Amino acid sequence: MRTFLRHLAVFSILPALAVLAILLKLDGRTDERYLRYTTPPQTSLILGSSRAAIGLRPHVLDSVLGAEGHDIHSYNFSFAIGFSSYGPAYYGTISRKLDPTARNGVFILSVDPWTISCRKDKPPSNDRAEDATSSIGHVRSVSADPNIDYLLNIYDHPLLTILLPDQRPKEYAARVGDDGLLEMEVSMQPAEVERRTIRKVKEYREDRLPLARPSALRLGYLGLTIDLLKEHGTVVLVRMPVSSGIQAVEDRLMPGFSATMARMADERQVRFIDLYNAPDEWTFIDGDHLTASSGRKATAMIANDLLHPPGPAMDGSKTR
User: Fold this and answer.
1) What are the start-end ranges of the H helices in 98-215?
2) DSSP 8-state assignment for residue 105
3) 84 in a domain, yes or no?
4) 3: which of 19, 132, 210, 297 is 20 to 30 A away, CA to CA?
């Protein structure tokens, strides 16, 4: 019996040590989402797809606004298309991440046709069911550290792979920073950028566009998200810049998208900043996501627009 108990103790310790090692290894390189589920509830948020996750920089926003006396601590809570398309799942996740005591926050909602689209091969009555399958809505805790709920319900690899060397392609090495920013480590050699851009345009044109259609459900939840966040501070919609090749695809999907966003912003009395035009003014890592320098430029432009809008200046009050 004593031998059996000794063996049992040994075999119990080994799994415990493996779990401990996994928990100690968790960081911003675990995947492109995990760290965002381990930070406390936030008072100011950057929301949207990977264009915002990579392009909009919380420290730039905070610095520009801070220079004018606004004490803002923003957090990038954006994800990839599919995870953060506006809808019931993302709305619920944002609600849980939002600090309920926030009153003078800043909320930047990155919008594009893909964030309010659903699958064309399914009827509109299926849009809610499609959103319900999103794993982003399956995690109840968005601020636990470590976040076991996330690891069991969203992390899409065996947990033991966390202990292995990073197997992801070097061309898209990425890490999530403490402020939620997704930092990309990619070659910016012109030939590499061109190759990635051609591949990304092809992906949108041949893979995404044939399956996408506008969704009234997602558009409605974008409106509900605006209404929720207006209770806690200043809200601004932003259409991020993309290369001309991706513009051509988006203009086929929703030709009047910017006009639709401008109307929604006007109806809800929030700002809409359209950075979509003049793609030659920006640099991209793949035609879709801004480089670090262009990301800083875009974020500073948004911050300055918040400080000096054509309408009432930013004062943390609800805009009505």
Assistant:
1) 127-132, 148-153, 190-202
2) E
3) yes
4) 19
Tell me the residue ranges of DSSP E strands in the chain: 44-47, 74-76, 105-110, 117-119, 173-176, 182-185, 212-214, 233-239, 271-274
Residue 187: CATH number of its domain: 3.40.50.1110
Residues in the chain: 320
Least Cα distance to 234 among 103, 110, 75 occurs for 103
Cis peptide before 210 (omega within 30 of 0): no
Three-class SS state of 291: coil
Name the nearest CA neighbour of 254 among 113, 116, 90, 121.
113
Whether residue 312 is contained in a domain is answered as no
3-state secondary structure of 83: coil
Report how far Cα 318 is from the mean position of its chain's Cα atoms: 24
Give domain status of residue 80, yes or no.
yes
Considering the chain, what percentage of its residues have pLDDT values greater than 70? Answer: 79
Under-70 pLDDT residues of the chain: 1-32, 132-135, 155-173, 310-320
Indicate the number of domains in the chain: 1
191: domain range?
27-307
Residues 6+ apart with CB under 8 A from 54: 181, 182, 183, 184, 285, 289, 290, 295
Q: What's this model's pTM, rounded to 2 decimal places? A: 0.85
Is 19 within the bounds of a domain? no
